[in-house]
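Weekly structure sync, notes
Attendees: PL (lead), two postdocs, one rotation student
Agenda item 3: pending single-chain targets
PL asked that the sequence for the first pending target be pasted directly into the notes so everyone works from the same version. It is reproduced below exactly as submitted, 384 residues in total.
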Amino acid sequence: MMRYVSRITDWPMPFFLFRSLNFFWVDKRYGTFCAKATEEPVKDKPKDEEKGNHPVSDMLIDGFGRMHSYLRISLTERCNLRCHYCMPAEGVELTPSPQLLTRHEILRLANLFVTSGVNKIRLTGGEPTVRKDIKEICLDLSSLKGLKTLAITTNGITLARKLPMLKECGLTSLNISLDTLVPAKFEFMTRRKGHHMVIDSINAAIDLGYNPVKVNCVVMRGFNDDEMCDFVNLTRDKPINVRFIEFMPFDGNVWNFKKLVPYSEMLDTVRKQFPGLKRMHDHPTETAKNFQIDGHTGTVSFITSMTEHFCAGCNRLRLLADGNLKVCLFGPSEVSLRDPLRHGAADEELREIIGAAVKRKKASHAGMFDIAKTANRPMIHIGG
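Predicted structure, written out during the meeting:
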């Protein structure tokens, strides 16, 4: 199995065992997890409206002046993995298929958002590639005038064989989730086999010319925090953007702060081995803190949702598989677009519902400890 990893790294992959199968109950504590990074963020100035974009309508502007030009659409609640941080051990109750948005309903709602100023759509799940009509959905969405980016977040299990077709259908960008480079740890975390399939998908994306190929890694203390520098090595000779994500609380994932490895600690870990780490210029709406390393083809990023949130620049909305609109990942508030759509609502009525929900969006999330106590859906229902 190590041959799959070595192809994308070009260096021998040692097989290490994780420190404890009981990583979810590690007692080890750390110091100040909200410590600031040593470098201040560098932000690019917002660019003028690009050619071909629809101007952002009032429907997508909240009470704090944030313009929401990015829509994440969950295509399904189903998944072919059972990751600990995404799905509770007892499983989840899936929404009956007739209550999920159809392909044509997705297209109609997506068109409303794009004609109102959304220029980026990301397909999520569950696992979006398990949806049988994903090819047709990509073809529909990529044809929307004004849409600049059609992306997908996937676990990579079936992506390698489907990606050529999806690229032909207009898929322009992708994120592949991979939390460990050790097959045995992968099987423990996901409760399934398939590590080599994810590696195959990363290789396939590189071969098809995707640049960068983004690899999402949720860092958890006692499980994979000792692999961070091995992940960074993936960027040495390949156009890979490794994205280290702080562990976030959702219903059923048994979150507590002991599992969280804060950004400041992750940054120190990487910088000790890679002193050539340099901060890049980030767009004002960027969720990641992005870095380059001298001599590396790829890049490294940190998603700091818990210790240094980026709510002030948030431009994201979420359309769930059951047709509910969620304006904040960590907020419990949702409003159904499916129900009025199926009851014959005109486009203008749907715009009013969307606009009212966006206007109610709060300035920021409640903070990690309050989020952990707030009722919210499991991540598999929300969409990654």
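Discussion points:
- The mean pLDDT is 84.
- The CA atoms of residues 286 and 313 lie 7 Å apart.
Action: rotation student to compare against the earlier draft before next sync.
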